[in-house]
Write a structure and sequence with these properties.
Elements (H helix, E strand, L loop, with lengths): L12 H6 L26 H13 L10 H21 L12 H16 L5 E5 L4 H14 L2 E5 L13 H5 L6
Parallel strand pairs: 1-2
Helix pairs in contact: 4-5
Length: 175
């Protein structure tokens, strides 16, 4: 349990918000309500501190050199990989760390799509997909002559119509 949790284990949004320095600001004289995390995520103080410490003490590219700073960067990078792998309960050797979700989605669509999609194969996404997830699948299905199908969204509520999934699954989507 972290400092962000209540005694009963539930997440406390007030405690979480307090960890983010930007939420102490009041742009336009009002408390900040940030809703664009898909484009840029705000960072808690502990991340700002860790990045600053890295920049001031070990700023080098991991896996790129044999000198002390490069080794420190590599050690820190691999320690983070091991910690994340433990948290996700996956082997560290199978964990790929990238700069953004967009980069990761593009890598999956490109690499997996090139290796696995063929003419007439189906990729299934929702109508509510963010462009970061939609565009890579549009591009690779076009390139591989595969089909992109959509799970519809209710026009009024914006909810994904999961009851349509059974019908779409009969198309045997590859992804």
């Amino acid at each position: 349990m972290s400092a962000w949790h209540n005694a009963d284990g539930t997440l406390d949004p007030v405690k979480v918000r307090a960890e983010y320095p930007i939420f102490k600001t009041q742009p336009g004289g009002r408390p900040l309500h940030y809703l664009d995390s898909a484009a840029t995520a705000q960072r808690p103080q502990r991340v700002v501190d860790a990045v600053s410490k890295f920049l001031f003490t070990a700023n080098a590219n991991p896996h790129r050199g044999a000198y002390t700073l490069a080794q420190m960067a590599t050690d820190g990078y691999e320690a983070a990989r091991a910690r994340i792998a433990t948290y996700l309960n996956v082997p560290a050797s199978e964990l790929v760390m990238l700069g953004s979700a967009t980069e990761a989605l593009n890598l999956v669509a490109r690499s997996w799509g090139k290796a696995n999609l063929r003419r007439g194969d189906v990729v299934l996404v929702t109508e509510a997909e963010h462009h970061a997830n939609l565009i890579p699948w549009q591009q690779i299905t076009r390139e591989m002559d595969a089909d992109l199908e959509f799970i519809p969204v209710d026009d009024v509520t914006g909810e994904i119509l999961w009851d349509r999934l059974d019908t779409l699954m009969k198309l045997k989507p590859k992804m």
